[in-house]
From TrEMBL:
Keywords: Hydrolase. This is Deacetylase. Residues 28-295 form the Histone deacetylase domain. Belongs to the histone deacetylase family. Transmembrane segments: none annotated. PANTHER family: HISTONE DEACETYLASE 12, HISTONE DEACETYLASE HDAC1-RELATED. One of its GO terms (biological process) is epigenetic regulation of gene expression. Pfam families: Hist_deacetyl.
Amino acid sequence: MSPAPPVLKIAFDPVYAHPLPEGHRFPMLKYELIPEQLLYEGTITAGNLFAPAPCADEVVLWTHDKEYVEKLHGQNLSAREQRHIGFPQSPQLTLREFVITQGTIDCCHYAMAHGVALNVAGGTHHAFANRGEGFCLLNDFGVAANYLLKKGLAHKILIVDLDVHQGNGTASLFGNEPRVFTFSMHGAHNYPFHKEKSDLDIGLNDGTDDKLYLSLLQNTLYTLLGQLQPDFAFYLSGVDILSTDKFGKLKVSIEGCKQRDEMVFSQLKSKGIPCVVAMGGGYSPDIKTIVEAHCNTFRVAKDIYGL
């Protein structure tokens, strides 16, 4: 019997429609529009999409503290903790985070089978073991990386975080874990203003353009892959690096952002390293810009991996 053909698998979030106060709905809208656009244009079919179940507490607790997880389930976060997260607590929001996290874990299995898999949401890199920050409750890359290590499915993991904001929670989680290498290339003068120490941090000056951004990434990623020889990679493909972003402070064009994705996927594929992708941030005033930039990541992944 011939093996099943490779396929592009995409986790989507069926719980995004939880009620949020006015002003919080806009940043969530992209999670509905990205799969709709990809389906409309024919880049994917419904068969590419899967809806994850919530992640089991047992797995989450390999990364997050028990007291914090119990607070999430019990809706017992303090007002201060909710302010740090940026969303008011609700059962739907907690459920959504557990679903997103399982989606990233499921993507790991698909990536090992097909080379790459993507989560429409995820990239919640500001979540620490004992608290949430910056719209992040659980650290999906952190939970998924620990899952791979615990199950013996990976032995050296590279996390490539190219969101404009440093992955402070991820850096904290793996500060003493030599099997996980955290690389964050972000705005030096952007949130979080107290940075944690990743294994490699590249802080970019305000106004960094396509040429400098892509040159730094090309050389750094090539060197890291040669030195580390990872057997698995997570890629946070935030589009808040765009010049149009309200908070990003960089000057990367939408074409430069697409070339970034091409660079990451090409280098990982050339070395046979499975890759799981999460979307991360994006806050351009026009939702069409955000959706187009994120959709480019899916289009590029499909083209480069021949899926």
